[in-house]
Design brief:
Layout lengths: L1 H10 L5 E4 L7 H13 L4 E2 L7 H9 L3 E6 L10 E7 L1 H13 L17 E3 L8 H15 L6 E2 L2 E2 L5 E3 L4 E2 L16 E5 L1
Parallel strand pairs: 1-10, 2-3, 3-4
Antiparallel strand pairs: 4-5, 6-9, 7-8
Helix pairs in contact: 2-3
C-alpha cells in the first residue's frame, strides 16, 4: 500500500489514502463490508493488498467508483471502473521452481521481484484509463523494468512525519528492507482494524 500511496501522491500530492485492515483470515463477505464502508465513506478508488481482492472490485463497480486488481486479472468484476492491476507472472515463477526441482536443486520458498525481473506485470488498462495516463504509466513501468527508477526513493516520510527512507537512498525490487516495512507512507490513515 505504500507503493500505491507514493505513486498516487506523485500524480496528485493532495491524494489521501485510507486503509481498512481486515486480517489474513477475512472472509470475502468481510472484505466486501470493509470495501463498502470505504466506498460509502467517499473513496474514489478501491484497491486491496490481500489474496482475495475480487470483492473489492465488485463493490467498486456496484458503487460506480474505480478499482485496481491484484495478483490476477480482475477486470471482469469491474468492467466499467477497472483501472489496472499488479499481476504475478505465475508462469515464470512456477516454471523456475519446477526446473529447479526437476534438476534436484533446492528452490526458493520466498520469491521476490518486480518488473525488472519479470515477476510482475500490469493487467491491461480498463476503459477509465485515458491515453495520457496510459502513456505516463507505461513510461514509469519501463523505467522500473530497466532499473532506472525506484518506487521507494528518498526522502520519504511516514504518516507521522518521520523520515523512513533517507534522501539519496533507493529501495529496489529485491531489497530486503522492503520485507521489513512496518510504516505507513505520508498521506495514509487507518480507518480501523
Amino acid at each position: 500500500m505504500n507503493a500505491f500511496a507514493l505513486g498516487a501522491r506523485r500524480a496528485d500530492s493532495a491524494t489521501a489514502l485510507r486503509v481498512a485492515y481486515v486480517g489474513e483470515a477475512a472472509t470475502p463477505r468481510q472484505v466486501a463490508e470493509a470495501a463498502r464502508a470505504l466506498a460509502e465513506g467517499g473513496a474514489d478508488v478501491l484497491a486491496a493488498q490481500l489474496d482475495g481482492a475480487r470483492p473489492v472490485c465488485e463493490v467498486a463497480e456496484a458503487h460506480g467508483i474505480l478499482c485496481c486488481g491484484l495478483h490476477t486479472d480482475l477486470s471482469a468484476f469491474a468492467p466499467q471502473g477497472f483501472l489496472t492491476g499488479a499481476e504475478w507472472a505465475w508462469e515464470k515463477a512456477y516454471a523456475e521452481a519446477v526446473a529447479l526441482i526437476a534438476a534436484g536443486k533446492p528452490w526458493k520458498h520466498l520469491r521476490q521481484g518486480g518488473f525488472d525481473q519479470g515477476f510482475v506485470r500490469n493487467t491491461a488498462y480498463g476503459p477509465a484509463v485515458g491515453v495520457e495516463a496510459r502513456a505516463h504509466a507505461d513510461a514509469a513501468r519501463m523505467q522500473l523494468a530497466n532499473g532506472n527508477a525506484a518506487v521507494f526513493r528518498g526522502p520519504i516520510q511516514d504518516n507521522t512525519g518521520r523520515t523512513v527512507v533517507a534522501k539519496g537512498k533507493a529501495l529496489r525490487g529485491g531489497d530486503a528492507e522492503l520485507g521489513r516495512m512496518v510504516w505507513l507512507a505520508d498521506g495514509i490513515t487507518e480507518v480501523g482494524r
